[in-house]
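Feature request disguised as a bug report, sorry. It would help if multi-protein outputs had a clear separator. Right now it looks like this:
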Amino acid sequence: MNSPLGVRIDGGIATLTFDRPARRNALSRQLLECLRSALTRLAPERLGAVVLAGAGDCFSAGADVSELRGTAEDAAFDDALAEIIGIVREAPFLVIAAIEGPCIGAALDLACACDLRVVSATAFFELPSVRLGLLYNPAAVLRLHRRLPATTVRRLLLLGDRIHASEALAAGIASRLCAAGGAIALANELAGRADCGSRALAESKRLLNALEQGDADPAAWEQIRSELMSSPERRAALAAAKARLRVREASGG
């Protein structure tokens, strides 16, 4: 049986592709397990970033409704998704969602857990839980409320509004916009700026998460900053920056 998740690693960038185009890349239990497994097997010291994408012209239609029973047992899907979201948030590298077409329900929750969201002109975002007779997972609502403006969350949750790419930046969903078909290319361009195994990147991401959660201890973070200031990683980066400066000065640039 073919895997519902494509995995490609090239030049310090891992691209994980939801590969169920016939089902609009719906997040089945199998796909979630493949995604969890792939994320946990990646070697952080060899990566700068991970790009999440959907095959074809769709990011993901959200949970695979064919697997849902309409009972409390469906909470198992929420648990599986929450585990993956925790891995994405705690990963010591960038995670970028490259979004073409629909990004609905659970896929929106997953995309918002990523550090950046590259949104193509064809993309749209929707959270249809209320019209499906469901109180959306409160833990997921809390996650969205921390990442998105309150007005955007109310539009998505209470009205079931469809937010198109044209307003995704203003709505706080998109990090960057691009032309149709260009999401993966732009995501890879941004991913290429991340240094593999960078502790500075990992700690910066952890600090942002701590601030978002409201549990950042200033003294602890000052200690981490002090460690990084005299680290071999910083000395190497500083030496490289000085070398680039010398080259520019020598060339009159």
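(second protein starts here, but nothing in the output says so)
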Amino acid sequence: MSRASEFFSADSSASLLRAILDGLPNAIIFALDREYRYLAFNRKHRSAMRDVWNATVKIGDSLLDCMTMPSLRVLAKASIDRALAGESFIERQEQTGTDILYELRWQPLYDADDLIIGALSIAADLTELHSAQLKVERLNIDLERRGIERGALLAAANEELESFASNITHDLKAPLRAISGYSAMVLEDYGPKLDVEGQRKLTVIADNAVKMNALICDLVALIRVGIAKLKPVPIAMRDMARAMYHESASPEDSSAIAFDLGDIPDCVGDPTLLRKVWANLFSNAIKFTTGRPGRVIEVLADTSGTEIKYRIRDNGVGFDNRYAHKLFKLFSRLHSGEAYAGAGAGLAIVKRIVELHGGKVGAEMLKGERTEFWFTLPRTEASGSELP
């Protein structure tokens, strides 16, 4: 009996070794001596080899003599000889005629005197993993194809929307200009011949043409915001807010309003679009504080772990908190058009721009008769924080 056989058959270790080998759920293990005879193997190896063995195999049988396929015998001998020569290596094998794939880790077996007494192979059945990888690859290819198709569809849809916006601008504004212009000419040329009611009705026609023109402009603006591609860059938000306030406020408004701009943090975003956010929110605050005593507009911000929240407060007419959810809907108004000008699209545009940036919007009435509109933007490294 060889020294390797003595080691594997020792009563003190044989039963424990067999239990360990058979208890490994996914490993296919076998050991051979220098004459290619089995020293040990586990149940997983017996199961894996049942289609290539020519008979019931037992410890002491030669692996090479048991194999029915000459080609497999040649491959197995080459790998065993590498391990017997002292090499440790990994190889992959596909079982002939099947989709079964194994990864084998070969290494020499040493005795206490550091002499090579055999070869050990620990294999893993990669069939399911390989199948899953192939499915993932096919899925990725399919997703990529669908992404390309959807990208093309989205591009086509955006082109159609842009065309639609252009057609609205051209095809609807032209007749509105005609209605407005001819109403003005009729009033100028025939006004004295009309009674008061006739003059009033012509004025109503002209005014509504102007309002319709404003609605069309806002609708086109919302469409174009919806198909805009973000071009994010670092933004000095305090400078932008100050500039947009002074651009939105008339000299009369500026002299009447106490404008308090806090030390708000910078952000990353599309400057063209975010200017529209500030412009709409400031225009809103200016409009609804008109006529109020001691007009105040305040800008402040706070940060959390993932976002920056910008707040615009004013002491305007306010609204009922029960209807705050309606404020950001297109053409939704909580105040009459007669009292406050506007088509009701500005806040819808704000919402769309902020959502394009991955943020949220909201509004509420605070204690002390203060109105607050707010929007959030994600924090980034460029805005002075770590990426979430």
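Even a blank line would do. Unrelated, but nice: The chain has a mean pLDDT of 77.
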